[in-house]
Amino acid sequence: MSVPQYTGTFLAKRFLNSNREAIRKSLPIKDPETQRARDYKKKLLMKQAKEYLPYRLEYQAKRFGYTYDKCRLTHANTRWGSCSSNRTISLNIGLMQVPEQLRDYVIIHELAHLNHMDHSKAFWAEVGSHDKNYKLHERRLKSFSPGI
Ligand SMILES: [Zn+2]
């Protein structure tokens, strides 16, 4: 880890401690046992996600009157979902590990991006009209990591 010179070791340590999980997940794994376990978990989550996320997305889209083109499942380490300008919505299979309300929040967040490709006031107003606890959900989501 490299830190600017003016950052004391105290701050550097605090950063390490509060980001330990994320840092650990971003490091290459040397132990084949751990790698195998992670591959297996990924497979299992992908199977669960395939049977759930596209249907949940469809359900929420119908409920709030959105039309999207495709649903893609991803396993990026850093994002829960995304929405592209060709109306493809990507959802992280790690969503299968978070509480249902947070999963729905991510789906609603990405659906709202179909109308607003930014995080403008209008975007958040739209999210808020479908999920009145969106601020709480956004905050709670930060305590989970999409990495497997
Ligand atoms: Zn967003």
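qc> The chain has six helices and three strands.
qc> done
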